[in-house]
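Reference record
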Amino acid sequence: MSALEIRPTVAADLPSITEIYKHEVRFGTATFELIPPDLAEMTRRFNTLTDGGFPYLVAILNGRVVGYAYAGPYRPRPAYRFTVENSVYLEPATHRRGIGSQLLQRLIVESEARGYRQMIAVIGDSANAGSIGVHTRCGFQMIGTHPNVGLKFGRWLDTVMMQLPLGDGGSSVPGSA
């Protein structure tokens, strides 16, 4: 495998990101979206996250975007401000090559550097062994499953919840002495 580059996403990466996500919406169960968002919507989402200070990364292989990962708010209420939810998506041809793990590891580092204390993975479909495995290898612990909460492709899907403490995790309160 050629050298993999992981770097912050720039606007020129968004058409490739849109195509990767479109494939997952149409054919996969990692996301529960049913209609693929267009480039304008993906650009709006990207700008919202990066303007909010959240990390958004791409994986480049042989000069092409082959995957991306980002962290975003876990929930909108202020008490959740130190917790992020992660997302990782890859081109299907690059699965099982370690790229997802490398993207997630870098996302963890970037999130810790921004002061986040917990990372939550909400994994679509309990049969998604690849994503569950990547998160397990990166230190996430299983915290639960929500059975039958999504309906896609004519079947009920679970979501799997996993969690990773970042930095000091819950051992101290930020800003307290």
Notes: Strands lie at 4-8, 56-61, 64-73, 83-90, 118-124, 141-152, 155-165. The chain has one domain: 4-165. The helical segments are 14-27, 39-51, 99-113, 129-137. The radius of gyration is 16 Å.
